[in-house]
Design brief:
Elements: H1 2-40, H2 45-127, H3 139-151, H4 155-168, H5 175-188, H6 192-205, H7 212-225, H8 229-242, H9 247-258
Helix pairs in contact: 1-2, 3-4, 4-5, 5-6, 5-7, 6-7, 7-8, 7-9, 8-9
C-alpha cells in the first residue's frame, strides 16, 4: 500500500514537471522565432522592432510564469522528500534540468534584447545629425544677420548666411530676397557672370517677388559690364515694359538714355474718320 502511495505521489509530482517541460519547448520555439526574425529584418525597421519587443515581453512573461511553477514544484518536492525516496530524487533532477533550461533561455533572451538595443541605437545614430553639427538659426534671425553683415561690408560672411538661408528655408517668403542678395554680392565683387546666373534664379523661381524688378535691372547692368550691350539693352527694355511704374523702370530708362538706346514709345493708332 505504501509502495502504491509512493508511485501515485511520483506520478502526481511528475505531471507538473512534464507540463513545465512542454512550456519549455514552447519557450525555445519562441526564442528561435525571435532569432529568425532578427535575421530577416531589413525594411520597416520601426514596425518590426515593435513586433520583436512585444514578442520579447510575451516570452519574458512566459519565462516568469514557468519559473514560478518550477519554484512551486521544487517546494512541493522538498516537502515530500521524506516519503518519496529515490523517486522524488529523480523528479527533483528533472526539475533542476528545467531550472537550467529556463536559465539558458533567459540568457539567450537577454542576448537578443542586447542585440535589439544595439540595433535601435544604430538606427538612432543614423537618423541623428552628426555630433557638433550646428543647428540652423530661425529664418528671421538668419536673414537679419545676413543683412547686417552685408551692410557692414562683411560680404563673405553675408554670402554664406544668405546661402544657408536658401539651404534651410528655400520655401520661406524671404527666399527670393535672399537669392537676390546672393546675386547682388556677386555683382558688387565684380563676378558679373555669376551675378547674371543668380539674378536669373530670382526671375525664374520668384517671378512675383518684390525683388523681381530689381533683379532684372541688375541683370541688365551686369550684362552691360560684361560687354554684352545688346543683351543688356534688351533686358532693360524688357524691364520697362514689364514693370513700367516702378523705380527700377525709371532707372532702366535713364540708363537706356545714357546708352542712346531709349525705348521709343509706341505711336498711338488713329482711327480714320
Amino acid at each position: 500500500m505504501k509502495r502504491l502511495s509512493t508511485i501515485l505521489l511520483v506520478v502526481a509530482l511528475a505531471a507538473p514537471a512534464l507540463a513545465a517541460n512542454k512550456d519549455m519547448v514552447q519557450l525555445q520555439t519562441q526564442v528561435q522565432n525571435l532569432q529568425d526574425s532578427m535575421a530577416r529584418m531589413q525594411q520597416t525597421f520601426d514596425e518590426r522592432m515593435g513586433v520583436m519587443k512585444n514578442l520579447i515581453e510575451q516570452t519574458t512573461d512566459n519565462i516568469n510564469r514557468l519559473n514560478s511553477n518550477v519554484d512551486n514544484l521544487t517546494k512541493t518536492l522538498q516537502q515530500q522528500s521524506g516519503d518519496s525516496g529515490a523517486k522524488t530524487d529523480q523528479v527533483s533532477s528533472q526539475v533542476q534540468a528545467l531550472h537550467d533550461s529556463v536559465d539558458e533561455v533567459k540568457a539567450r533572451l537577454n542576448k537578443i534584447q542586447q542585440q535589439l538595443d544595439a540595433m535601435s541605437q544604430q538606427q538612432q545614430n543614423l537618423q541623428a545629425p552628426p555630433q557638433g553639427a550646428a543647428q540652423a538659426p530661425p529664418p528671421d534671425v538668419l536673414y537679419q544677420n545676413a543683412l547686417r553683415d552685408m551692410t557692414a561690408n562683411k560680404m563673405q560672411l553675408a554670402d554664406q548666411e544668405f546661402r544657408d538661408f536658401m539651404k534651410y528655408y528655400p520655401d520661406n517668403e524671404l527666399a527670393g530676397n535672399a537669392q537676390y542678395y546672393i546675386a547682388d554680392i556677386e555683382y558688387r565683387q565684380g563676378n558679373f557672370q555669376q551675378a547674371v546666373a543668380d539674378y536669373d534664379k530670382v526671375l525664374e523661381q520668384h517671378p512675383g517677388g518684390n525683388k523681381a524688378a530689381a533683379s532684372q535691372l541688375k541683370k541688365g547692368y551686369a550684362l552691360l559690364e560684361l560687354g554684352q550691350r545688346d543683351a543688356g539693352v534688351r533686358e532693360l527694355n524688357s524691364l520697362v515694359a514689364r514693370y513700367p511704374k516702378t523705380s527700377e523702370a525709371a532707372q532702366a530708362q535713364q540708363r537706356l538714355t545714357q546708352l542712346g538706346a531709349s525705348r521709343k514709345p509706341t505711336p498711338k493708332r488713329t482711327t480714320p474718320r
